[in-house]
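Checked the freezer inventory, then went back to the computational side. Two predictions to log before the end of the day. The first one is the construct we discussed on Monday; recording sequence and tokens without edits.
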Amino acid sequence: MVFGFWNLILEGGNMRRMIFRTIFLVLMSLIFVSAASAQVCVECHKKITPNIVSDWQLSKHSQNKIDCSECHGSQHKSAQDVAKVKIPTPDTCASCHPDRVKQFKSGKHAAAWAAMKAMPTAHWQPMALMEGMKGCGGCHKIGLKTEAEIKELKKGGAGFGVASCDACHTRHTFSVQEAKQPQACQTCHMGFDHPQWEMYSGSKHGVRYLLKQSKILPPTASAPTCQTCHMQGGNHAVRTAWGFLAVRLPMPDDKQWTADRATILQGLGVLDPDGKPTARLDVVKAADVARLTQEDWQKERDKMIKTCNRCHSINFAKGELAKGDQMIKEVDRLMADAILTIAGLYKDGILPKPKNYAYPFPDLLTFHDAPTVIEQKLFVMFLEHRMRAFQGTFHANPDYALWYGWSEMQRDLTEIKEMAAEMHEKHKKK
């Protein structure tokens, strides 16, 4: 049938017939060469990395004749030229999945690597934790990297954490179904500062979905996943209204909350002691960790309400999300009090301001590298307990909202004030 089609086209004369036959033969030879090349890869890697081959054979890529060279190039021919293997990047995936990659690049996951690198003390961490992908880098590798960064990672022997897409669609199955499951998010979204998996899986939403996975609930049962709420319709631009840090602009009408949020922004180094923007504001913008206009915030809030409305009334959804907003206001009051307590110690000369701090305010982004016990307590209060209080509320997990969040913040503030009082007393006696 194929040859018959070509014969119809070639009825225009001998010269055209020769040209078309040549093109046809070239195309067919390329197909055969590609197939033969793929077979060589498979036969070799069946011995060296058999499970990689097995995963690829299970993939849609294999079913659609997307062979190894499509992602890894064709320069690697033997064990002696392994360095010539091309490691895929999101741009590699974009050749077939342009819309998904475009969405991904507009979301917060794409900014993860830059956000990690922007932390003031990131360079203090052991290489194994950062570039080695065993600590912060192990999750933040999902973010986009520059060509220079990729080159540096490869030079250090960590060139396998550059693909981004494989953080959720794991190699070499690259399964859509796998990435749709909430467990795909579990590796990164758990633990100290963002235990979303634990909050979700313990909430009624998560319990119902896990029961659905185990077939106790029927397939038609309503049970949202992480992806249902944060990747509506498969959109890869993962964003939230409040962002990771739960700070935003414009400031609220409530004067106390405005003052508290300003204090937190000072603790983040985004505002200076006079309330003026610093260079770090550009970093916050680049990392996309905060909504900086009402329109940007409202856009994400409306998307979430629409998602909630699939199972709940709009009034119920708005009311529940408003509780999360209110919880942020409550935790900001405690957080600001703690920040100002330590800033007061700097001001009174009781606690020396670390030399790497730009302003006489505790720097919340130094994390565990804060130099004293009282500053460490503030770091834990901000990144662990404040996060759990408001994230637990938004994720409908009462235990995290109260006992692992709000309650712990109250204890943190009590301890910080008590330590500060003791330091004031010791200072008087000198």
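The second is the one RB wanted added to the comparison set:
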Amino acid sequence: MGAVLSSILALIALLGAPLFVVILAAAMLGFYSADIPLTVITIELYGMVDTPLLIALPLFTFAGYLLAESNLSSRLVRLTEVFLGWLPGGLAVVAFVTCAFFTAFTGASGVTIVAVGALLYPALVEAGYRDKFSLGLVTTSGSLGLLLAPSLPLILYGVIVQQMNLPNSFTIQELFIAGIFPAILMIVCLTAYAIWSNRDREIERKVFTREETFDAIKAVKWEIPLPLIILGGIYSGFFAVSEAAAVTTMYVFLVEVVIHREVKYAELPRVIRESMVMVGGILIILGVSLAFSNYLIDTEIPQRLFEWISTYIEGKITFLIMLNVVLLILGAILDIFSALAIMTPLIVPVAMRFGVDPVHLGIIFLANMQIGYFTPPIGMNLFIASYRFRKSITELYRATIPFMLVLLFALLIITYVPAVSLVFLDR
């Protein structure tokens, strides 16, 4: 009977059933096979509601959607161009930094490609960068901010792991702190590649007058305090993550709706609806994944998985190599929230048995997923960029491969040098 039900479950997954349906069905099948009442699933879903940290998800998401609807992208490009445009490869640096911060705040790499990439791509070509290089840069930069606060995937990873009640616990603040250096490392590696690959070209460097600099700062004077509110408040411990989310949302609303008036009051119902649809999808996936996690823990599947893996993998390094390969593949075929929901309950207990810190593991996870967004053949950002810039998908493949190799190099450092993530943490 169990084999038949498992086959049916595999069939509906292959036929394209929504991921939460597959996960929920797997959890129900598991509990049914173990003679555990299915009411445990509803209890788990209800328990999720009592998680204060979840308040941050809808608040940060709504704030991100408001920022995406505004003209912040153009103002942010202008500001970074003023301060970084004079450097060798300055406009490339502008692209990396702008995309990283925009993705961090909006939580969506696709939005970054559409909003910021649309500004940067023609600017890069006009400045003298090769079309192929410019195309690869804006496509790969779309996911750079996933390791920076207030990254929704980092929050989701933290919520899932905290609900598992495992030893060696951590806070969301620690996750945010752990992501700083890895994100900087990726940007530095990409910048070095950008300078080296364009060393034989006459690239225009932009020098701005004092008046232009002041104008650029004046244009974003209301947004400048935003990183200070989020990062300063969270990292200092002055704000809890949920409190920082509430303050951020209120501040973004006042700036973009009341002061700049770039988001009209008539558009607010649409923005709220779109942002909450996304949140609803995340919460459904999260709820059923927590129920599935409960089943995995009750039936000791992670322990069995560890024992099986241990017969083929002897040490931590080999495990991390295997983990990188698996996560890169998953990142290319699943969205990041789905991958987190499926893999976190399985990977975290096994990784901890191999001596991998759960905070370091979260950074490894997100760094892999970040690269997976543009990993051929079906990385999501490849298709978004193909549609936005009217380029063939094969052209996108060729354009992104050099950047992917650079980020893979950074990923190796992040993975095998835990201090890059944990240097500011007492772990």
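For RB: Residues 37-422 form one domain. The chain has one domain: 37-422. Let me know if you want it refolded.
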